[in-house]
Design goal:
heterodimer, A: alpha+beta, Arc Repressor Mutant, subunit A, 3-stranded antiparallel beta sheet, 4 helices, B: about 400 residues, two-stranded antiparallel sheet, 12 helices, about 65% helix, about 0% strand, globular
Chain lengths: ~110, ~400
């Protein structure tokens, strides 16, 4: 994955997923955390999944009062790629003195 | 708002079959999230993201694009085909329009060979599909307009400047094919532009084209006697051919200096390309809107001034020394006005040819101004001069 660049949105998403790599996350949670809209979040998730960096599944059991959630997390390859890309972005930000990665915007969206 | 959300949920649920099963799951996931957590405008915005997702996924599939083109081309042929063969334009349209459609079908294959497939992302695919639809609208509107304007062609063959109409129609078709080729090249993988170049060029061009059309048709909707404008004004054309490309070239060249992808065009060339793209878009949008409006309402076209010579001399006949009988002179005048009313002040047809040439020059000027301003703002002691080059590779 060293030959691939990630967009700012993809980096933001990778950063959010990388914080809890073993946990399954749902789309709305990721949208809140990254500040991405659904029309941006899902295409990025799909592209990452197409490259084997993200895996997806449905919730096992049908919860009461809401539909089953579609869940996402990094694959082992995705975790390694995320680590490498984020560390590269941080080092670039450090050397250039500009922000290359937006930190996850936890409180951006209600 | 909840009604809109329900309608969008229903639309998205029903459109899941359009996607392959592996993709449909993602859409179902998005819809499930919407019903769980959001209300009001937030839910609508979330669901609109789903519409964007479906559109993006559909446009990625080649057969959808091919079917869209076949359907649109079929409609164009149906619109263009009717008419009496005594109308000079009808047989010309029946030959030229299918040839143009065949050329438009082949062009993507030719461009793919030299410039690669369409660039990743929804915008380049959308630009291609919408660009094709706009060009097809120009072809259909223009053909109908010619048909309405050449009804006396059986008596007086149409043409301009001694060139018969069939030759003019062929030239016009080649011009449109040039526009399509430009659209295809600018959205190809091997033409690497800064991310904002295409949105800026297409956005400003579309807005300008719509504004020009609003000016052109401003009196059309004022009542039953409302007419199209007789003259758009040199100032407007000046802005399209010079002002718009200077501004676009300047803005894009500056942005490209900060954010050019690896192996991308140099900023100045990006500025020129975006400038030509913006002007081309403006003229093409205007041409489509005016051609369709005139085709639908030919009676709303103002009569040309000055009228044809009082002695019945035929300006557009081939040969030009024909005389029109007195009882047909008014009808000829009406037809001539319609045939030549694609826009105003020289006509959009001509601007389709001329404006991009001016834009190339003006865009170069804008890009040169941007480079100059960057040179003065990027001295060795400025922080940006220490910026490392962008790493190479594909962006996800």
């Amino acid at each position: 994955m060293a030959d691939r660049r990630f967009s700012a949105q993809a980096l933001s998403l990778l950063s959010a997923l990388e914080q809890a790599p073993a946990a399954w996350r749902h789309g709305y949670e990721l949208a809140k955390e990254t500040g991405l809209r659904s029309g941006t979040l899902y295409p990025v998730l799909i592209r990452l999944a197409d490259r084997g960096l993200v895996e997806a599944c449905w919730e096992d059991e049908q919860p009461s009062g809401r539909p089953r959630r579609h869940l996402y997390r990094l694959t082992p390859d995705g975790f390694a790629a995320a680590r490498a890309a984020l560390s590269e972005a941080r080092s670039q930000r450090h050397s250039a003195g500009i922000a290359a990665v937006r930190p996850p915007a936890r409180a951006k969206e209600a | 708002m909840s009604l809109i959300a329900r309608m969008l949920t229903s639309l998205l649920t029903r459109s899941a079959w359009l996607l392959p099963p592996a993709r449909a799951e993602w859409l179902e996931g998005l819809v499930a999230e919407a019903t769980e957590t959001r209300t009001g405008r937030g839910r609508v915005a979330w669901l609109l993201g789903g519409v964007w997702l479906v559109a993006g996924q559909l446009l990625r599939r080649c057969w959808i694009r091919v079917l869209t083109f076949i359907a649109a081309a079929g409609i164009v042929v149906l619109v263009v085909w009717p008419g009496s063969s005594s109308d000079y334009a009808v047989p010309v349209n029946r030959i030229v329009v299918p040839l143009v459609l065949a050329l438009l079908a082949v062009l993507p294959l030719l461009v793919r060979r030299y410039y690669g497939p369409v660039r990743q992302g929804l915008l380049p695919r959308t630009v291609r599909v919408v660009g094709y639809l706009v060009v097809l609208a120009v072809i259909a509107g223009h053909a109908v307009q010619e048909r309405e304007g050449q009804k006396l062609g059986a008596y007086f063959g149409g043409g301009i400047g001694g060139l018969p109409m069939s030759v003019l129609a062929g030239i016009f078709a080649l011009v449109l094919a040039g526009y399509v080729a430009a659209i295809l090249i600018l959205t190809s993988q091997r033409v690497r532009l800064t991310r904002s170049a295409l949105p800026i060029a297409i956005g400003t061009g579309t807005l300008t084209g719509v504004a020009l059309y609003a000016r052109f048709s401003s009196h059309l909707w004022s009542g039953p006697r409302g007419m199209l404008a007789a003259d758009l004004g040199l100032g407007w054309w000046g802005f399209v051919a010079l002002g718009l490309p200077v501004l676009t070239g300047f803005a894009v060249a500056r942005l490209a200096d900060r954010d050019t992808p690896a192996n991308g065009m140099i900023p100045a060339r990006q500025g020129r390309s975006a400038a030509v793209c913006a002007t081309g878009t403006a003229v093409l949008v205007l041409a489509a809107l005016t051609a369709v409006t005139i085709a639908i309402s030919p009676q709303k076209v103002p009569l040309q001034t000055p009228p044809p010579p009082a002695n019945g001399g035929c300006e557009t006949c081939v040969p030009v020394n024909l005389t029109i009988p007195p009882n047909l002179r008014h009808e000829y005048w009406v037809g001539l006005s319609i045939a030549q009313a694609a826009g105003a002040s020289g006509g959009t047809d001509w601007m389709l040819v001329i404006a991009p040439m001016f834009a190339l020059f003006a865009g170069g000027l804008g890009a040169a101004l941007a480079e100059r301003s960057l040179r003065t703002g990027n001295r060795p002691d400025s922080p940006r001069s220490a910026q490392p080059p962008a790493p190479s590779g594909t962006q996800i």
